[in-house]
Amino acid sequence: MRSVSRAYAKDTLALAELDLSLERGEFVALLGPSGCGKSTALACMAGLQPLTSGSIWRDDQRIDTLPTEKRGFGMVFQNYALFPHMSVQKNVEFGLKMRKVAKAERAARASRALELVQLSEHSSKLPAQLSGGQQQRVAIARALAIDPEIVLMDEPLSNLDASLRIELRTEIKRLYQERGLTVLYVTHDQEEALSLATRLVVLRAGRLEQTGTPEEVYTNPASAYVAGFMGYRNLFEAVCEFPRADGSVVLDLQGQKLLGSLRSDTALRPGAKVKVAIRPEDVTIDGAPGSTGLLATVEVVEYHGRELAVRTRTDGGVVIHLRTEKPVAAGERVRLSIVPERVLVFAEDEGRNNGDG
Ligand SMILES: Nc1ncnc2c1ncn2[C@@H]1O[C@H](COP(=O)(O)OP(=O)(O)OP(=O)(O)O)[C@@H](O)[C@H]1O
């Protein structure tokens, strides 16, 4: 996509000059909160939404001028979109029929696609006779039957319950690996994106905020906005007390000191407001003697099997979530320590407040 914009109404851009490229064999997850433009990007790619400006290319061929069916994409959506009166087999054959593939070949290709998603024995059933997960597998078989170069998926798992979602997620990954597919996948679920994608693209208000491998984005989110999507559940404001030349920063967190490391390019001045992002698993209770510690009180303890998920509140009133194997109880006084490298400090965003979730 070259500088693609899409405006549904005057002055509001769902996509704002978005540049996005996809290499053969990549599994790219488009990630971001509701309303950031993920579905619009996919719909523009598919030809289901017109572009307001910009262009889309496959290699040297311009394709945004082609109708949907000529773009050669397989598509899978959140709501399965199966024809209720057609058998599973006929549903999968449908795309091939539209492409005028002869009857015998149609049947053979549809059967192969159903085998791939392990639904062969259900081929004569109607969609309503299948579970949600099975219906979504039919939709995937239908997308794969046309032998697409690129598969576009828009939240294909979000209508399924938790266990089915994980099962089908693995299935999608297997198909991707076995068939050497190229996939553009829309999701708002970071775990889904991290487990499936070879590259993440985080959108914010119709623009690209960050792209990188799951590991890069997870360890080094470029902004507090991205961090919020990558499991950094502790996101709060603090004041820069003393910025050091090596990038470490002494912060004032409502009256207590916290040592962090600056992640933005912008240099900080003493007194500047900053955003801080910390993952719950990076916070420990009663760390080594002498480590910087935040005095806090345990508020809520949730049992999560091996670990406890704990909500604490610092003496200055800041809520900090953590995970621990140590038994603690509500009301207990604790000292929290966090390795300074895992206290990510971002300069306050300038003027980008649209699309934050
Ligand atoms: N058909 C439409 N008409 C008008 N505005 C629309 C339409 N579809 C989307 N929008 C607006 O465009 C923006 C981007 O929407 P889009 O559906 O692409 O976001 P998204 O990131 O996919 O969100 P979600 O995760 O909720 O589906 C939003 O502000 C939305 O309200």
TrEMBL record:
Establish whether keyword Nucleotide-binding is in the entry: yes
Pfam families in the record, alphabetically?
ABC_tran, TOBE_2
Q: Where is the ABC transporter domain?
A: 1-230
Keywords, sorted A to Z = ATP-binding, Nucleotide-binding, Transport
Gene3D superfamilies in the cross-refs? 2.40.50.100, Nucleic acid-binding proteins, P-loop containing nucleotide triphosphate hydrolases
Regions that span the bilayer: none
Q: State the InterPro entries in the record.
A: AAA+_ATPase (IPR003593), ABC_SmlMolc_Importer (IPR050093), ABC_transporter-like_ATP-bd (IPR003439), ABC_transporter-like_CS (IPR017871), Mo/tungstate-bd_C_term_dom (IPR008995), NA-bd_OB-fold (IPR012340), P-loop_NTPase (IPR027417), Transp-assoc_OB_typ2 (IPR013611)
Q: Name one GO molecular function term.
A: ABC-type transporter activity
> GO CC terms on record?
ATP-binding cassette (ABC) transporter complex
PANTHER family, per database record: SPERMIDINE/PUTRESCINE IMPORT ATP-BINDING PROTEIN POTA, SPERMIDINE_PUTRESCINE IMPORT ATP-BINDING PROTEIN POTA
Name assigned to this protein:
Spermidine/putrescine ABC transporter ATP-binding protein
**Source species:** Sinomonas humi
